[in-house]
Amino acid sequence: DSGVTQTPKHLITATGQRVTLRCSPRSGDLSVYWYQQSLDQGLQFLIQYYNGEERAKGNILERFSAQQFPDLHSELNLSSLELGDSALYFCASSVGGARSEAFFGQGTRLTVV
Amino acid sequence: GENVEQHPSTLSVQEGDSAVIKCTYSDSASNYFPWYKQELGKRPQLIIDIRSNVGEKKDQRIAVTLNKTAKHFSLHITETQPEDSAVYFCAASTGSYIPTFGRGTSLIVHP
Question: pLDDT tens across B93-104, in order?
Fold first, then answer.
């Protein structure tokens, strides 16, 4: 157990819908990262938060948004879902700063039908 | 931004053989290079990492080497076992630590 908790584990929804994925980082970790992993694809960086502030954006679609709350948990909101959004979404957390290990949650498998 | 290339995409070896996975990176400011192992249906987990002030690091059957001049680093697994079968990801990051991952190598160890 990495200490990073993601809910739900599985999510099936229809095209056009909106979903929210939740992540609770390890105790003490200030940085939260979101990654998308599609079938046979690597880990695509979406967005990073550090202590409540957006730190960096990667290949995140405009239909997607995220936030980190004062208690440091984070939510990833996916809207106007398309079939191609079906993927495994990972959250990772780290203490933050240079060269600190990232711990991954177990992921949320999103299936858009 | 950083770009990490990883090769090969698939590696098939016999049990007991060695396996080598290679990565190159583009940003000379990168100074932290972790390797993650992802078993089927599970989360990526750190197996070894190396920092820019070190050229080589070893942990039992796995080792990582770093060549900063050439901007490449490699993972070496000796005496492979079936339980080593997984997808391995290399990553590179700079001081702000936004790890950029390679596309992954699927390692298959045949008994």
Answer: 876 657 888 999
